Amino acid sequence: MKLIIKSTRLKYHSFVLIISMVFIAMFGALLAGMAVITGTNVQIASNQHKANSALSAAQSALECGRYIVANTPLPSTSINIVTVEQANNAWNTLCSQVQGQPWVAGQAIQTENEIITPSISFGQANTSFQVKFYRSDVNTIRLEGIGCDGQIERCAGINMKITKDNEVLQYASASRGRMWITGDSTIHGDIYSAWNLSKSQLATLATNPSALATMTAPNISPFNLPSDSEILGTINICWSKGQIEDKTWQLETLDEHGEPMYDENGNKIISPEDEIQGYNEGINYGVPPENMSGMSISDYDTTTYYNTTRAENGGGGDITTSGTTRTEYFPHGINADGTNNYQKSVSGSVTLTRHVYTDQTFDNVRLKASDNALFQNCTFNGVLFVDCSGNVVTGVGTSKYNNIRFDNCTFNSTTVTNTPQTLNWQKNCLYYTGSATFQNETSSEATILAPHFNVNLGNTNPVAGTENVLRGAIVGGIVDVRGNAEVFGTIISMADTSMYTSGYVTNIGATLDDGGSETVAIGDVGVINITPDSDKMLPNGITSPIVIKPLQNTYCENL
Fold it and tell me: Is 326 exposed, middle or buried (0-12, 13-18, 19+ CB in 10 A)?
């Protein structure tokens, strides 16, 4: 019996020993596996760190490349394309700018369509970057930042376009003066006013005390937006919040920190004193007052349009002066029934002897200075060049003006003027009455190019919503839009009106409260829509710099 017990115990001990050895083997294998996994995780983490470091270096290289581009000096042009020669020159200038960087010192590797800088250390040891540019076509440059951390490389890139600067076209309306938007108007974009703070006023302020007084006048607001209109974009003003603190007007209700106020439901608080009553997507104060291209008379040269009208270039020449005349006044009165009376004078009117043209068609023609024409039911094709004294050499001489009225006319054309150096709102004027019809092509860069002219657009859509659209830039010294109008482009009022304490306002919609001399007839009240097109080029005749412009939607990262 004792022998049996002993044998059983020995078997039990042997079984425990075997199980223990199995567990030891399993735990050893587990520990070995965990060690391998830990080592792998460490390697993965290290690789990820290096990948992030390389990508950070690549993005820094990209910013470095953008800095080089932004500081590359390029010429200006007044035509609305960048020629192959200009694009080639821009590329060569960029390459020279790259080679001239102190950290490059002429050591970049350069071929006909590619340039890549030497590596430069970035941050920690073993991290570096290179900047690479290459041309994929005449007007497209690819900028790439190449970042390395050890053996790991990452790349970030963006396309850039050689084009003309068109910054002003990002706005639906841009003005050197004040701007009032009213009368059921909808602006599908941002608006901008450089009133009172543009750089060109420095000389004016030094020589004109009234301009200086206007700068500090406490009761003049640059914008007015009643509740019947809306801006589906931002309002941009040169004044800083600090500069308007002592004014008697306010654009919006601000708290003690200078921020807009909201109620408990998140609705913006609008006080009766606010100049901005209508919907908008915010007000940007202190927008830099640099003059954008198209906002100064020195930017304009309309010679190419004048040349288009010359017979030797296939144009129609000069319009033969009509022997039929009619006396009108500008500004004029209205009848008791609310209709316009162009032959009724009001206080301050100028008398105009208009040469009358009825039911005629004109192709690529010039209207001679001082004609002060009245066009009735006429059609214009190509270019209508309205002459006056200006910088375009046409043999006119000095002190010549043109106040034109277009009544029920059709425009398959661009209307362009000479370039008078100052605003004379009564004597240089394009006045559209009745039902003007604009049928310029969708590719047109401009409908009206009339610097320092008073441009009064009346009812361009007799029935709101009909397909009668003004496309491209609409340029005047002051541009007023009334009645029903559909604009796909930018309204540019480029005349500096800072010295005037009333009037001289860009009116989008009909208003009598701006201090101006305009009358409002029945047909002046309507629905207005303005939608900017920032993809267009500035039209011929507006000088702007050639730029290398990043295309933000082309950014990508590569391994």
Answer: middle
